[in-house]
Amino acid sequence: MDAFNIAAQEDLPTSPPKRSQRRARPGRGSFLAGPLGPGRARPAPPPPFPPACCQMVEALLAVLILVCSSVSCGPTGGYTGLPSLGGIYYYQYGGAYSGFSGADGDRARQLDQRFQLLKVPIARAAMAVGGGLLVFSCTLILVGVLQLPWRFPAWLLLECILDIMVAIGIVPALYYFFHFLLEVYNSSVCKEREQLYQSKGYQGFRCSLHGAEIAAGLSGCVAVLAYLLSAGLAVWGYRTVHKLKQKPEQLYEL
User: Fold this and answer.
1) pLDDT given at position 237
2) 18 Cα distance to chain centroid
């Protein structure tokens, strides 16, 4: 009887192995095997590097340079006769100013146009620099979003070199920006224009740098520091990615 029961138990189908006890088939799950061992996923790219924060600041500073420089690159302005108001009114900086008529009005209009024409070249150059910096910063941000530095760490070294070159290039650009502006404000056209307005009691047309031009220069100075900091962080990012490529297990410790 016992022999019959033993034979019957041997004929019964065995229960399927538990899921945890199943062995992986050859070739299956091999994509999970790596330096971390079987069953461990490949290391995912690390979170965005700190240079991304600097690049956003650089983009913001470029926008400030572009906007502040555009103030000096406005229309030439001049005097517009408004017969209904009984005189010639000057429209500049959003206000209407009276007190000029006849030859004084014509002379003021000519001086305004000549003064604006002197400022247009340097203002357009500053706008071009601001636009170029904005495109450069947005390109670096896009490269970071596409995780190109993780796939090609050498890109971070190239980014470091570009950041240093841009930072060095901004310094002479700032010098020429203020140098040409001071030449415009020290010109005879600006001096005569200032005296003409002062003779009519207006003090807002002095031959000196205005707030938007100073803000553009300060934004450029801060941009130099931001690009140098971004260059240092790019080197740090390259070293970090290089270590993670050699020892991926450190990624799970971060």
Assistant:
1) 85
2) 56
Residue 249 in contact with residue 36, Cβ under 8 Å? yes
Enter the DSSP assignment of 108. H
Distance separating alpha carbons of residues 207 and 196, to the nearest angstrom: 12
Could you give the residue ranges of the DSSP H alpha helices within the chain? 2-11, 51-71, 103-145, 148-151, 154-185, 188-199, 211-246
pLDDT of residue 92: 45
Q: How do residues 185-206 score in pLDDT, each as one tens digit?
A: 999 999 998 888 888 777 778 8
Phi-psi region of 93 (alpha: psi -120 to 50; beta: other; left: phi over 0): left
- Residue 246 in tokens: 């050699």
Locus of tokens 């006769």: 81
Structure tokens at 30: 């091999």
- Tokens standing for 184? 């415009």
DSSP designation for 100: E
Residues 91 and 93: their CA atoms lie apart, in Å, by 7
Structure-token pair, residue 192: 């005569």
pLDDT score, position 199 = 83
The model's pTM is: 0.69
Torsion of CA 149, 50, 217, 129, to 10 degrees: 20
